[in-house]
Amino acid sequence: LPPALVSPPCASLCLQAALEVLRHSQSAACARLCQALIGYLVPPGHAPGESPLVSALEDAQRGRLVEALFGAAGPRCLRGLFREHLRGRLLGVATHRLANHGLQRLLDHAPRDVVGEVLEELGPALRQPLARGHPGVLTALAGACRRHPPLQPLALRRLLEVSPAP
């Protein structure tokens, strides 16, 4: 995608709408648009230890586009984006004032194995996003675990650990 198609705020809104429409129509064009956006937002050859996806999530305009991408991408795509760019960085994403919204959207659409990995990595530190005023991270994680019953016991234990003692 040429940067001119993504940079202006109105273009980003149009791409978000296009992703939503294509996702609902179940068109093959949705996967092609997702791949084109990934190629733009997460260019190959980034420096080791850096994540252009996390940088995009931390930006107001590009973050909205990534959120729409998470809603339209298929499980294999989400799994790849998570494992390459978000694994090991979840606490920073969950506590960031903008990026946490992208994590919530990922959890809304993630396959069970990704939700399980998020629960394992972020579960022991769930107090931190809550302390930063991001209860939506906990809500999204609980909702994702509700959709995947084998994850519910661990999710419940982690959520109870966050609750203040009486």
3D structure, described in words:
- This protein is 72% helix and 0% strand.
- It is mainly alpha-helical.
- The protein has a single domain, classed as Leucine-rich Repeat Variant.
- α8 (112-122) crosses α10.
- The protein is globular.
- The model has no long low-confidence stretch (mean pLDDT 87).
- Keywords: Repeat.
- This is NOP9 protein.
Task: State the gist of this model.
Pfam families: PUF_NOP9 (PF22493). By secondary structure, the chain is mainly alpha-helical.
Could you please say which CATH topology applies here? Leucine-rich Repeat Variant
Radius of gyration: 16 Å
Q: Kindly estimate the percentage of residues that lie in beta strands according to DSSP.
A: under 5%
Helical amount among residues, as a percent range? over 70%
Structural class: mainly alpha
What is the typical, i.e. mean, pLDDT? 87
Second CATH tier, the architecture: Alpha Horseshoe
Low-confidence segments, given as residue ranges, are none
The figure for the number of domains is 1
Secondary structure topology:
Layout: H1 9-25, H2 28-41, H3 52-57, H4 60-72, H5 75-86, H6 90-95, H7 99-109, H8 112-122, H9 127-131, H10 135-147, H11 152-162
Helix pairs in contact: 1-2, 1-4, 2-4, 4-7, 7-10, 8-10, 10-11
